[in-house]
Design goal:
Layout: H1 2-52, E1 64-68, E2 76-77, E3 90-93, E4 98-99, E5 105-106, H2 109-115, E6 118-121, E7 123-139, E8 144-147, E9 153-158, E10 166-167, E11 172-177, H3 179-190, H4 197-204, H5 209-216, E12 225-228, E13 233-238, E14 245-246, E15 253-256, E16 260-268, H6 269-272, E17 280-285, E18 293-304, E19 310-318, E20 329-346, E21 351-352, E22 357-364, E23 367-379, E24 382-387, E25 394-398, H7 400-417
Antiparallel strand pairs: 1-2, 1-3, 4-5, 5-23, 6-25, 7-16, 7-20, 8-15, 9-11, 9-14, 10-13, 11-12, 13-15, 16-19, 17-18, 17-20, 18-19, 20-24, 21-22, 22-23, 23-24
């Protein structure tokens, strides 16, 4: 009897387990059916919400092609979304950035206005490049004179005794006693009336002509000889001291005429082609920054510095009032005109990638043609165009990079997705 009851209890437990398993299967099927049946409704709801998030009038009546990353990353979306910084993706309209022909970029007029696109007419004009560089003021080497007597002696009286003194031509500098000259003077008196060797020797020793006339008239020769200044100028070096004995050829004075000064400027190699002898220059020094000194380039030295890679120019500047002094630091501006008339565009019109330079030629109605050009000289605010443009054409001068970014984006999408917006998964 107990065995029969045990079997009935086992069959009841098995039936309960089977019932539980059937219930779980039915519940799982119901959940799966419910998920499959409501899936399209959820997707449609998300799509409608995304579509409603699109700003009204973003494309001014036309359809949105896709949405691009606001930071310029190569990522697009068919529906509005936000990036990692919660910035809205930018809608790209059907007619925006459309191409017309092989190299024409078309941008909607509304977009052109919002970008602030401006253009100017290409024209021809004369060009002059301004070369700016540093320089130093120096004495004119051709206006320097040294006093180095050809005879020796003792300086008995010094008449100009300070460096910086200004002297005139013929002004006495010092009185010297020379035994050699005294002997020649006596020989000249003994041979008076005839051309003897004493006369020639006195001339060869730069004996003063006024004293030689006195000897010819038979006057008694002086004990000391006065040495005059051979040129007018400023004493920049003086080694003569009263009572000193000097040897023949020893430099006692150095005199320089400062009415004209040299300005030696260092010009870089890339600017050397635009500078030539005869160009006008404007010199400014720190002592008088508001007073320019006009000058002229007179010589270009033949060498270039190995370390500085600069060439030296010589500029002559008039200095009648003596304001310019040797070794002053100066800045120089040289106006270097370029012969002829050339096609010129504003420098803001050029998009320079390093390897090539292009401009955007305006074709009207929001159409722009990217065109490669060959550039020449750059001047402040403008650049010379050697090839690629003709006078009368209009080039974009502002928002060039924005238009170029739009065309580059279109080209990149065409290359990577064959005309399909990236990120659609198809």
């Amino acid at each position: 009897m107990s065995n029969i009851e045990g079997c009935k209890a086992g069959r009841g437990l098995s039936t309960a387990v089977v019932a539980v398993l059937v219930g779980l299967a039915v519940g799982a099927g119901a959940v799966l059916w419910a998920w499959k049946g409501t899936g399209p409704l959820v997707t449609a709801g998300v799509t409608e919400a995304a579509a409603s998030a699109t700003p009204a009038g973003a494309c001014a009546g036309s359809q949105v092609k896709y949405y691009r990353n606001p930071m310029g990353a190569p990522d697009t979306s068919p529906v509005p979304k936000k990036d990692s910084m919660q910035m809205d993706y930018i809608p790209v309209c059907e007619d925006e950035g459309a191409s017309e022909g092989d190299n024409i970029v078309k941008v909607s007029l509304d977009r052109v206005q919002r970008l602030g696109v401006r253009s100017e007419i290409v024209e021809e004009r004369a060009l002059a490049r301004t070369v700016r560089t540093f320089a130093t003021v120096q004495y004119d080497e051709r206006r320097q004179t040294v006093i180095a007597p050809r005879f020796g002696g003792w300086i008995e009286k010094l008449l100009v005794n300070a460096t910086g003194d200004t002297v005139t031509r013929g002004q006495p500098l010092f009185e010297v006693y020379s035994p050699e000259l005294n002997v020649l003077q006596q020989e000249f008196l003994l041979s008076r009336g005839t051309q003897g060797s004493a006369d020639n020797r006195l001339r060869n020793l730069d004996y003063p002509e006024s004293d030689l006339e006195k000897l010819r008239r038979g006057e008694r020769p002086p004990r000391t000889i006065t040495v005059p200044a051979p040129a007018a100028g400023t004493v920049i070096e003086k080694t003569a001291v009263a009572g000193m004995r000097y040897q023949p050829g020893e430099t006692l004075f150095r005199i320089v005429d400062t009415s004209v000064m040299w300005v030696l400027a260092e010009v870089y190699e890339q600017d050397l082609a635009f500078v030539k002898a005869g160009d006008m220059a404007k010199v400014a020094v720190n002592a008088w920054p508001n007073r320019p000194f006009p000058g002229r380039v007179t010589f270009i030295y033949p060498g270039v510095g190995k370390e500085s890679r600069t060439a030296r120019l010589r500029i002559e500047v008039a200095n009648p009032d003596g304001l310019l002094r040797a070794d002053m630091a100066a800045t120089v501006e040289i106006e270097a005109p370029i012969p002829g008339r050339w096609v010129v565009v504003p420098d803001s019109a050029v998009i320079d990638s390093g390897k090539r330079q292009i401009v955007l030629v305006e074709r009207g109605e929001g159409r722009f043609e990217p065109r490669a050009v060959r550039l020449g000289v750059r001047v402040p605010g403008h650049v010379q165009v050697l090839e690629g443009l003709k006078p009368g054409e209009r080039v974009v001068t502002s928002a060039t990079f924005l238009i170029d970014a739009e065309s580059n984006l279109r080209a990149a999408l065409a290359a990577f997705t064959a005309g399909k917006p990236a990120g659609d998964g198809k």
